[in-house]
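User:
Care to share a sequence and structure tokens?

Assistant:
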Amino acid sequence: MIPAVVYAIPAFVLLVVVEALSYRYLPDDDEQGYELRDTATSMSMGAGSQVIGLPWKAFAVLAYAACHELAPWRLSPGSVWTWVLLFFAEDLAYYVFHRSHHRVRLLWASHVVHHSSVRFNLSTALRQSWTPMTTLPFWLPLALLGVPPWMILLQQSFSLIYQFFLHTERVDRLWRPVEWFFNTPSHHRVHHGSNSAYLDRNYGGILIVWDRLFRTFEAEGERVVYGLTKNIATYNPLRVAFHEYAAVWRDVRTARHWRDRAGHLFGPPGWTPKAEV
């Protein structure tokens, strides 16, 4: 099964071009717009993620199918309630996945790719990881609930397509009820900020209610500074894809104690051992 998001790629590329042209002919001094090398890197990361992701999806389908066979019941695709359950359950799974990938350094090494640009535009949405293997465990419970594997993949694609449109500075705040329940460009700009007030905030996929419920929500206030707390200053796709894995390896290799090695792997990004007295 080819994920639905693959069919949306031509539309993604077209919309990137349209947004880039909008900056050229309708510039805004408060918005950064596009930079050719940055955009090329984002496009390269997106293309690479699809090349790696398609065969990986085949393995994921097999894992979902195995868990589905173990489920004590089967949920019918013909029932509207199955789709309602899937919508909320998949979005919660995405929240848990996303939060974990910000709080566990070994997982962050995969996800950091998406945050490595100092710009924020529709091309940023395409800057995706080349190591999708860390995602699988977070959606397996949906198959154990009895959701058919093809429905899980379809809802994942819907979520990714929705999130593509969040990566823009061209849209200000939306109608207040929409901002309260749904993830919006304003909320997602906060998520991509390296400002101290914005770190580890707004993990939601389609909905923002999980962030409100679990107290990880932050409204957009001060101007967002995009990128990492320590930017990598490279447009090389290989370095973008693997730089944090290399940094993790250096820290683990030079650590003096096993507990410190575990801290470098499973602690949050930026974790350092306590000074010995």
User: Anything to note?
Assistant: The mean pLDDT is 95. The radius of gyration is 19 Å. Residues 19 and 25 are 10 Å apart (CA to CA). The chain has twelve helices and no strands.
